[in-house]
Amino acid sequence: MSEEEKPDVLDEEEEEEAEEQEAAEAPEEATEEAPEEEGAEEEAEEEAEEEVRYEDAVNNGDFIMVEMTGRAETGELIETTDEDLAREEGAYEEGRAYGPRLVIVGEGYVLRGLDQRLPGVPFDEETEIEIPAEEAFGDRDPENVQMIPYRVLRSKGVNPVIGGELEIDGRRAIVRSVGAGRVQVDYNHPLAGRKVVYSLKVTEHITDDKKKMEALIGRRFLGIDPGEFNVKKTKKKLRIGVPDEVFFGENIQIAKRGVALDILRYFEELDEVEFYETIKRS
To answer: What does R_g of the chain's alpha carbons equal in angstroms?
Structure first.
């Protein structure tokens, strides 16, 4: 190669480098603009998803006390906070605490379909809420209905009876039919495929922090007046004095841990919860 050709070759290389540099710089410019566009989109989404706030009615995150009764579309009683009604319909459960129930809206304290429909419900008014099957106990799935050899169940010590409930390999099922050496079992929830209707009334909207804490305590220590617990809050710590009645109950340590976890979850300013006992000279 002659000396005269070299400058031409160098010029071509320089042009290629310049083109590569321009191509490399172009995406950088586009990238610099992208955050602004993304930021604008995020702001628009936030505005669109801004939560509606209701006056004199339930809002997401509210602590409320609720009286409620749920029925399947067939009229079958699912649950109730009314002790008299439970006794009337043969659904009374010994040891269960009846009366208004604590619900923290949006936290899964009640059936999902009901929880989602609580915002906007007025305080102190009887309200009826209808929940479609898919948002209550789910639709019926044909694949959850299976035939099992009779001998398999007998080998597990199970004597299948039509309509009876049993547990197979950790799954609850209802016996639908028995015959010809085979048993048809249904793993669907007994209320699957059924619409549910709740009649309810919000009897109290709790806004005071101490009362919220007492409500959380009452949820774990059933049958004991939450006002009997001595609740004292410092800057980062909550001290709970345990009344004598608690010592005669069952699963006390589990209840204490449940209360502590609940309080730490809903009161982020607290770092610890301490329980103490006071024994006085008789």
So the answer is: 32
CA distance 201 to 6: 92
Q: Which among 174, 188, 93, 97 is positioned nearest to 139, based on CA atoms? A: 188
Q: Is the pLDDT of residue 64 over 80?
A: yes
Contacts 24+ apart (CB under 8 A), 8-15: none
Q: What burial class does residue 267 get, using C-beta atoms within 10 Å of its C-beta: 0-12 exposed, 13-18 middle, 19+ buried?
A: middle
Q: Residue 14 and residue 120: Cα distance in Å, rounded?
A: 70
**Pairing between β-strand 63-72 and β-strand 196-206 as defined by DSSP bridges:** antiparallel
CA 10/CA 189 separation, integer angstroms: 79
Q: pLDDT tens digit string along 211-268?
A: 999 999 999 998 889 999 999 999 899 999 999 888 877 889 999 999 999 999 999 9
Which residue is associated with the tokens 């604008």?
40
pLDDT tens, position by position, 71-103: 999 899 999 999 999 999 999 998 888 999 999
What mean pLDDT is predicted for residues 7-30? 48
Return the ∠ at Cα 250 (arms to 282 and 106), rounded to 5°: 120
What beta strand segments (E) does the chain contain? 63-72, 77-80, 101-104, 127-131, 145-149, 165-168, 171-179, 182-186, 196-206, 230-233, 237-242, 272-277
d(CA 188, CA 185): 9
- What is the reported pLDDT for 98? 93
First CA to last CA distance, the chain? 114
